[in-house]
Amino acid sequence: MTLYMDVHETLPEGIGAQDVAGAHARDLETQDKYDVKYLRYWVDEQHGKVFCLVEAPDAAAAITVHREGHGLVADRIFPVIEGS
Description:
Blueprint: E1 2-8, H1 17-30, E2 37-44, E3 49-56, H2 59-69, E4 76-79
Antiparallel strand pairs: 1-3, 1-4, 2-3
Helix pairs in contact: 1-2
């Protein structure tokens, strides 16, 4: 399983941390169908950005979960290695 960080560069107008929490909950409801595990997310409300840490078999599976769960697909996704 590969670890990815996805980046949502610009959220739709009016979307805030509570909305992102709801979207994350929908990811959790959807992820098992695609062997994906959304682990954590971070919201920068000031700049309208969201960062999601996810384990997935590939980037396409992670994107599919976002698309199916709530439609807010990341602009970029990067394979990452966790450090301490």
